[in-house]
């Protein structure tokens, strides 16, 4: 899609100067603070994601993959509840207020998480609550997206959203990479007696995330300023700064928003986040079951894999910024969904080889059977490795090979970031110049709802029925998204194009 207006490159590391150089420099400094906030939101989620399962097993050995689903979902549930509220707040007050409040909640929640293993009872419930509060703090993503949407012209929007997604992907890289690096502290770690804190491979990442939050608050207070531009890049009053200025921008929002396009965008975003939440949640249990990795190995190797996916995503965002100018946003969104479908289809188990079972011997070449024993795993580890025998599907479901796992990672690592940036870029264009705080809050809430339901869904289906059923259902959901996008294709256009202010 090309626009009548001249296209400008959106810089990530320097300000773009138009009619008012001082205002534009301040605008891009503020946008970069939003980039950094999105980056830290991503770090706050991924920095502990690969260690949640072994940490949960350490504090409560009776916990199963189903409860892990609730722990992972708690973050998104908190974000789903908080996002519309922070979005509404940002529509009527300076965005600095909801940002500082949300980041402070995030800092305190991460400190709470670090003390979970020292609490005398119900540690797993405290872990659930701490991740819920971290998610509430992450509700500021709605504020970030609405700010960037309002502070960029239509021709800057895709590039700015891609930059923001690149920062988010960088958080996905740094989070697991930091967790992998901090895994060398070990499970014993260091005991800081004067504050009664155990710093180990599970708590150190959360404490580091809290330190990042302090830096973020300082940047928001010292640098962030309110800026708003129209579709052409002209500076207009910041509508959420003082109530009296609302009348000055009323002509800019003439025309109705296509609510069917808004609903479709929310559904597509829900599906995209749902399937990636499934992948994030199941990666550690799946690798431990299929590859017989120990807890420490699973944290280290999956941290490296997720970091590699994040690096791959940054490359994708750089390509998307160029390709979208040639082919448009909608074709890229469709192509990303096709790649995600291929990634999950490859994960389906085939063949006659079965996973190694915990506390089991293989009696024949076709079917493993259980033998009662208390002997540790054959690799000499103090913890059992392999597929738990209580998951009955382990007895008859073929193993997923490491090559399948890596290939799936690569495909999803291309498809997901493409769909992610295209979905909310399209959404911001569909909304046009209207205040987007609440709308972005609902978009973030739909994504958070997906991150809530996805882990719960996959943890239960995976535990009871196994990977074949889980990934088959995901493939069906992706196909439904492709059909929906195809049916609504012509309506997913920018507000200004729909009302004839710009041409496709």
Describe the structure.
The protein is mainly α. The strands form 2 sheets. The protein has a two-stranded antiparallel sheet. It has a two-stranded antiparallel ribbon with strand order 3-4. Helix 1 packs antiparallel against helix 8 and helix 3 crosses helix 6. It starts with 20 loop residues before the first helix and ends in a 6-residue tail after the last helix. The N terminus is likely disordered.
Brief write-up:
64% of the residues lie in helices and 2% in strands. It has 504 residues and is an all-alpha fold.
Helix content range: 55-70%
General form: globular
Main sheet properties:
2 strands, antiparallel
* Counted beta strands: 4
Structural class: mainly alpha
- State the separation between the terminal residues, measured CA to CA: 6 Å
Overall average residue pLDDT: 80
Write the layout of secondary structure elements.
Blueprint: H1 21-46, H2 52-59, H3 65-92, H4 96-114, H5 123-137, H6 141-150, H7 154-182, E1 190-192, E2 197-199, H8 204-222, H9 259-291, H10 295-327, H11 329-346, E3 360-361, E4 369-370, H12 402-431, H13 437-465, H14 467-487, H15 495-498
Descriptors:
504 residues, two-stranded antiparallel sheet, 4 strands, disordered N terminus
